[in-house]
Design a protein that fits this description.
The protein has 7 helices and 7 strands. A 7-stranded parallel β-sheet has the order 3-2-1-6-4-7-5, sandwiched between helices. Helix 2 packs parallel to helix 3 and helix 2 runs parallel beside helix 7. The radius of gyration is 16 Å and the shape is globular. One of its GO terms (biological process) is RNA processing.
Length: 176
């Protein structure tokens, strides 16, 4: 039998209302100073696909509604719980005081390779993704409970922020 693509009806996806009521996985994403609105929209889709508990938009990161975010989010701005917080360091402090483990996704001295990252059972994680050029700010790297680095084997020194979000979310869910 030849494989065929499934139709949208056959995918049995949740409605927006059912998604909002569904149990989310114990992690959130923090986007700090993301310049590209297309990247923001793409991360909304990733947060929807991997049922993140929340998406925080910080600093200069664009917010819905915006045409470029909407174009790549494909409706995920309606399903994913999100909040704008101007100061990322205040947000990190707040989440840590609530018991979240904050992980900066960055190439840094003393970082943990994603392949070695082992989420603690029954803990909630906040993954911080930084600016497309400058990365996660130094203040957050110092504040974070850990820094996780995605191994790379080519000539480029970084991945697109939306690709990074997808890798981190998938990895976290596979290891839970």
């Amino acid at each position: 039998m030849q494989p065929r693509k499934l139709s949208l009806d056959e995918l049995n996806r949740l409605s927006v209302d059912a998604f909002k009521e569904s149990e989310k996985f114990p992690y959130c994403l923090i986007l700090d100073d993301i310049r590209s609105l297309n990247n923001v929209g793409s991360v909304f889709r990733t947060a929807d696909a991997f049922r993140a508990s929340k998406l925080f938009l910080c600093g200069i990161t664009g917010q819905p509604p915006h045409r470029d975010i909407t174009k790549t989010a494909l409706g995920a701005t309606e399903s994913v719980d999100w909040e704008y917080v101007s100061d990322v360091t205040s947000l990190v402090n707040q989440l840590q005081s609530e018991g979240w483990i904050v992980a900066a996704i960055e190439q840094a001295e003393g970082s943990t390779s994603l392949s070695d990252f082992k989420p603690e059972p029954n803990k909630s994680y906040a993954f911080v993704l930084g600016n497309e050029v400058t990365g996660v700010c130094d203040a957050v790297i110092q504040q974070a409970d850990l820094v996780v680095e995605i191994p790379q084997f080519g000539t480029k020194h970084s991945l697109n922020i939306s690709v990074t979000a997808g890798i981190v979310c998938w990895d976290f869910l596979q290891k839970r």
